[in-house]
Amino acid sequence: GGQSRNVQPFSDEDASIETMSHCSGFSDPASFTEDGPEVDEEATQEDLEYKLKGFIDLTLDKSAKTRQAALESLKSAFSSKILYEFIMERRMTLTDSIERCIKKGKSDEQCAAAGLACLLCVQMGSGIESEEIFKTLGPVLKKIVCDGTASIQARQACATCLGICCFIVTDDITELYSTMECLENIFTKAYQRDRDTTGVSSTHNTVLHVSALLAWTLLLTICPMNEVKKKIEMHLHKLPSLLSCDDLNMRIAAGETLALLFELARETDADFFYEDMDLLTEKLRALATDGNKHRAKVDKRKQRSVFRDVLRAVEERDFPTEMVKFGPERMYIDCWVKKQTYETFKEILGSGMQYHLQSNDFLRNVFELGPPVMLDAATLKTMKISRFERHLYNSAAFKARTKARSKCRDKRADVGEFF
User: Fold this and answer.
1) Distance (Å, rounded) from C-alpha 99 to C-alpha 144?
2) What is the CA radius of gyration of the chain?
3) Could you give the CA distance from residue 116 to residue 255 in angstroms, rounded to a whole number?
4) How far is CA 72 from the centre of its chain?
5) Exposed, middle or buried by CB within 10 Å (0-12, 13-18, 19+), for 363?
6) How distant is the alpha carbon of residue 255 from its chain centre?
């Protein structure tokens, strides 16, 4: 009844078990044990499903603390495993629970429910079932995002959720534009910061503006080119004003959005010309070499790193390619659109990002990775370095490091001997 129950959260131990029989063949090579005992996959699957059913039931508990703990445990499970079949059978129950928690819960519970909604859509991928989920949750999320009386954290979580779910689900172009307009109404308020007399409220809302801007930018990457042109004309001259914001995250979000807008503009028009290019590059260069003493060293380092890349993108049309490793595969992030998409899903999935890149059909389609690579136990065993080889490598590295340090110590200690 009304008493708070003792919820045992979904643990790392649960996450480490390969539970789905259809995807056990492509687990991470590091998880393969050479001499470990045989694992009864069917039993572990049943055990996990039993736990998850309990968490779903607890999302209806009278205790807010219990509901939140159950939501967090479901989030951990959804981010670390592919549970498509289990979720498919219970998607409406989960949707109803999430809707109830967002509508009636307090700030922390709303944030947890919004995060679970994102993971629910990531698990289901694009399809009719996900569309049904978004039809139910979309209006609720929009209402919270636009509700000035709701907590900033809840509005921020709902803005992010709205962008991600719409990105995954929406084939309806009018729904896409409607969602983008909702997010625009939020972050464009940051443009008026300089003219705003109540600076405190603006600063308070900055985290919401950042989330809305990033969610809007994600949706811009799937817009038709004619709509992209309209949005570029509308925002490209206003976004540079956000580079002067006191908040580091807002400056970085604005800078990366500008880089992405320039990339899209040049794709639509090879001769694209920006009138205030000199003023913009001057601003970006100042941020890329910022040495203000009143800012923390960590913040300055992060800002300089980001804005060096943004400056190169705007000025030289260049992008520093990054490589992401997951299992035996590699993915190259070679443009701002891909970077924005990757960073968004990484934020949601956390440490489960690599696993989902390996085995989630939807994410593999987004990043054009093809069908999942199926690896049997023998292949995994050949890929894994033996324990003895790893020991030899670590020993050699340790000896080399000790030798190098000893030389440095000898130079410092060369002051003669005394008896």
Assistant:
1) 11
2) 25
3) 29
4) 16
5) buried
6) 18
Q: Which range, of 202-211, 234-243, 351-360, 394-403, averages the lowest pLDDT?
A: 394-403
Residue type, 179: T
Residue 44 is which amino acid?
T
Residue 88 to residues 83, 84, 93, 135, 179, Cα–Cα distance (Å): 8, 6, 10, 16, 25
Provide the whole-model pTM: 0.79
User: Tens digits of per-residue pLDDT, 46-88?
Assistant: 889 999 999 999 999 999 999 999 999 999 999 999 999 999 9
What string of H, E and C letters represents the secondary structure of the chain?
CCCCCCCCCCCHHHHHCCCCHHHHHHCCHHHCCCCCCCCCHHHHHHHHHHHHHHHHHHCCCCCHHHHHHHHHHHHHHHHHCCCHHHHHHHHHHHHHHHHHHHHHCCHHHHHHHHHHHHHHHHHHCCCHHHHHHHHHHHHHHHHHHHCCCCCHHHHHHHHHHHHHHHHHHCCCHHHHHHHHHHHHHHHHHHHHHHHCCCHHHHHHCHHHHHHHHHHHHHHHCCCCHHHHHHHHHHHCCCHHHHHHCCCHHHHHHHHHHHHHHHHHHHHHCCCCCCCCHHHHHHHHHHHHCCCCCCCCHHHHHHHHHHHHHHHHHHHHCCCCCEEEEECCEEEEECCHHHHHHHHHHHHHHHHHHHHHHHHCHHHHHHCCCCCCCCCCHHHHHHHCCCHHHHHHHHHHHHHHHHHHHHHHHHHHCCCCCCC
Please report, in angstroms and rounded to a whole number, the separation of the first and last CA atoms in the chain: 80
